[in-house]
From TrEMBL:
Residues 192-344 form the Helicase C-terminal domain. Keywords: ATP-binding, Cell cycle, Cell division, Helicase, Hydrolase, Meiosis, Mitosis, Nucleotide-binding. The keyword Kinase does not apply. Interacts (via N-terminus) with spn-A/Rad51. Residues 442-467 have a biased composition (Acidic residues). One of its GO terms (biological process) is reciprocal meiotic recombination. GO terms for molecular function: ATP binding; DNA translocase activity; helicase activity; hydrolase activity. Residues 436-467 are annotated as: Disordered. SMART domains: HELICc (SM00490). This is DNA repair and recombination protein RAD54-like. GO terms for cellular component: nucleus. It comes from the Eukaryota.
Length: 467
């Protein structure tokens, strides 16, 4: 605010990442006092809008929130131009997004239960609730749970030491083969990844990007690649800017032999163009939905020629689903305030989102909390609206407990083999507009082939790839 300037312009793809105060700050910077002070904004708009967003809000509270929202948008629209990624669907290949919910392995589950039920962790949670404990200890506990969801080896030292929360878990892990050993069978998500990569490498020519928030997880990926003989490159915060460009250019070359690009979401979430790959796996979620969205956009970019497949792995009923639910809550807030989408569903109460230190026995805690009216007895009895795409609320996506209806052949083929998949949300980007009209003769030729009983499609997978 201390900068002296005649004109102020801000450009942001994520005007709201966490809360409405961020949005206020942007508007206040370009038009000081348009919304009053921060305290006035909170009192006049934020409190009412947040309360109306809560799934437990009354009709009168939602009505009041709607009135405040209209007043706010009328003011802000004087200085705001909004364009979303939906514009890209006209120019890019189709994109399929899948949120794959995986069960923990028996060993993971027992270590997880021992940790959240330990006295040290219970006291940490009590202290945090009473605001008398250390916020650092709560954060450390959350980090331990997040790493445990990826693989027990990420907290192996603490388990072997019998550190706080892990006192009863020392005997659970089988002996390790050393730092270079990798044990996919100890993690549901890593087992799924191992099956996925093996099938993709054996049967397809696609390249893939693996993204994680932790460099320790990238170390795990490296050990897996060396064990299976996969060619790979890795980009994290230790790589220089000059070297990054060279590595990216080489990976995007169709002639290069690198099958996997490993990416730290913090180091490479923005700016990278990895169109050499058309598949991307987000191995773990971040608290900030903008970080994940940026990382997942690395392959669906200008220049991409193939259909894109984006996968998000979540450990069922764990803190990962809670984090993902918090992301959904933040996105709903942004959709309501920034994009003026008043139909954004209110699925999660604030109280539910605070309930991090629990393990839910469920195929998907997120689907359970949606209170979905389209599914009955683990069957989707009503399809999403035809116009729905992967920018819509999760309630408008396809929901499945088995492989039927999946658009991705790779995931279909490994569903039974991986053992740990329990639920999948999946959706595709908006249908493309036809850019070049085929001639009548070309269209007739295609129809003639399809109608000819002797004509056989050489690729049985085409129907799956077309969605």
């Amino acid at each position: 605010m201390g900068l002296k300037a005649k004109r102020r312009v801000l450009l942001s793809g994520t005007p709201i990442q966490n809360d409405l105060l961020e949005y206020f700050s942007l508007i206040h910077f370009v038009n000081e006092d348009l919304l009053g002070s921060a305290s006035e904004f909170k009192r006049k708009f934020e409190n009412y809008i947040l309360r109306g967003q809560d799934s437990t809000a009354t009709d009168s509270e939602r009505q009041r929130a709607s009135e405040c929202l209209k007043e706010l948008t009328d003011i802000v629209n004087k200085c705001l131009i909004r364009r979303t990624s939906s514009l890209l669907t006209k120019y890019l290949p189709v994109k399929f997004e899948m949120i794959i919910v995986c069960q923990l392995t028996p060993i993971q589950r027992q270590i997880y239960l021992n940790y959240i039920n330990s006295e040290s962790i219970r006291s940490t949670v009590r202290d945090s609730e009473e605001s008398t404990g250390s916020s650092f200890s709560s954060l450390a506990s959350i980090t331990n749970l997040k790493k445990l969801c990826n693989h027990p080896d990420l907290v192996l030292d603490k388990i072997l030491e019998g550190a706080e929360g892990f006192e009863k878990s020392r005997h659970l892990l089988p002996p390790s083969g050393g730092d270079k050993d990798v044990r996919p069978e100890l993690s549901g998500k890593l087992m799924l990844l191992d099956c996925f990569l093996a099938n993709l490498k054996a049967n397809y020519s696609d390249k893939i990007v693996l993204v994680s928030n932790y460099t320790q997880t990238l170390d795990l990926f490296e050990r897996l690649c060396r064990k299976r003989g996969y060619m790979y490159v890795r980009l994290d915060g230790t790589m220089s800017i000059k070297k990054r460009a060279k590595v990216v250019d080489n990976f995007n070359n169709p002639e290069s032999k690198e099958f996997i690009f490993m990416l730290s979401s913090k180091a490479g979430g923005c700016g990278l163009n990895l169109i050499g790959a058309n598949r991307l796996i987000m191995f773990d979620p971040d608290w900030n939905p903008a970080n994940d969205d940026q990382a997942m956009a690395r392959v669906w970019r200008d220049g991409q020629q193939k259909p894109c497949y984006i996968y998000r792995f979540l450990a069922a009923g764990t803190i990962e689903e809670k984090i993902f639910q918090r992301q959904a809550h933040k996105k709903a807030l942004s959709s309501t305030v920034v994009d003026m989408n008043e139909e954004t569903a209110r699925h999660f109460s604030v109280a539910e989102l605070r309930d991090l230190f629990r393990l839910e026995e469920t195929e998907s805690d997120t689907h359970r909390r949606l209170k979905c009216k389209r599914c009955l007895n683990k069957i989707q009895i009503k399809a999403p609206p035809e116009e729905a795409d992967c920018t819509d609320d999760l309630s408008q996506w396809h929901h499945c407990w088995d492989k039927k209806g999946l658009a991705d052949m790779v995931l279909k083929q490994i569903w039974d083999m991986s053992k740990y998949i329990s639920f999948v949300f999946h959706q595709r980007s908006a249908k493309q507009e036809v850019k070049v009209q085929k001639s009548f003769e070309e269209e007739t030729e295609v129809l003639d082939k399809e109608e000819d009983p002797e004509y056989e499609d050489e690729d049985d997978n085409d129907s799956d790839y077309s969605g």
